[in-house]
Amino acid sequence: MAADLLAVTGATGFVGQAVLDLAARGGIEVRALTRRPQEPRTGVEWVSGDLGDTRALAELARGASAVIHIAGVVNAPDLAGFEAGNVAGTLNVVDAARLAGVPRFVHVSSLSAREPQLSDYGASKLRGERLVAASGLDWTVVRPPAVYGPRDTEMFELFKLARRGIVPLPPTGHLSIIHVGDLARLLLALVPSSEAVTRQSFEPDDGREGGWTHVDLAKAIGRAVGKRVTALPLKPGVLRLGARLDAMVRGKGAKLTQDRVGYMCHPDWRISEGARPPAGLWLPRVETGMGLHATAAWYREEGWL
């Protein structure tokens, strides 16, 4: 892909780091927003600030040929936290892009936006999408399903549980997943504008026909960590109780929240077939079994497992 300068939010996060790695391999210059001081990195200009800092966002967007907006809030104690990050924050980035005359905007949303009534998170992601769509920019929205890979702290919880041999799960259902490297490739592939991608929303996955059942995915993660696991689908009431206990133990760091229980219990988080990215532009490359094994190996090497 050709790009003069990419402006990236969320560059220090899980997906953002994968985008920076891939951009570096492609010789693509990046200007990246960061809330904390970062080590110098070849090809990356760091801009200090956050989604509420209009001065920093103006600097981020200045002279950029495209914005990839990855940053957002995935976990918050209340609706206001999601609104601040996923709605007001997105509006600030959109406004900065418009004022700077940035010609292209790639927005990372979530598959949860498809069912906004289930969670504050999903509702806030949908509102963010609508702001992007109404912006007048040349935009594309990407709704990833569950994302896994090195550096991930969300699905890492399942790897930890699998090491113990028992994986509590949501009620019986299906989902799609995608490796972070495949998602990063898609985001960069979408930067050049074309009729096939402009003002479109896409839902990518690993290419597995019919997606994954919760139980099959738990067993695949078990194989990745070298364990035969017992998968335990739980009723919504049990998960809500678990969320209360997690809040008591980990406070604001809780991974299982009441808001997450809302969308975790939905029976079908598979991507929509008609929403896949154009095959001529992008196809997944990481076979999930191999990807899970490689991810488990990364966790071990880093001392996480």
Structure description:
The chain has 305 residues and is of the alpha/beta class. It has a domain at 6-148 and 177-207 and 270-285: Rossmann fold, CATH 3.40.50.720. The protein contains 10 helices and 14 strands. A 7-stranded parallel β-sheet has the order 3-2-1-4-5-6-11, sandwiched between helices. Strand 1 (6-9), helix 1 and strand 2 (30-34) form a beta-alpha-beta unit. Helix 7 packs across helix 10 (288-301). It starts with 5 loop residues before the first strand and ends with a helix. The relative contact order is 0.13. The mean pLDDT is 95.
Task: Put the structure in a nutshell.
The protein is of the alpha/beta class. The chain has ten helices and 14 strands. The model has no long low-confidence stretch (mean pLDDT 95).
Q: SS-based structural class? A: alpha/beta
CATH topology of one domain: Rossmann fold
Q: What shape does the CA trace take?
A: globular
- How much strand? 15-25%
- What's the number of helices? 10
Count of individual beta strands? 14
Highest-level CATH class of one domain: Alpha Beta
Largest sheet: 7 strands, parallel
Spatial strand sequence of the major β-sheet? 3-2-1-4-5-6-11
Q: CATH homologous superfamily of one domain - what is it?
A: NAD(P)-binding Rossmann-like Domain
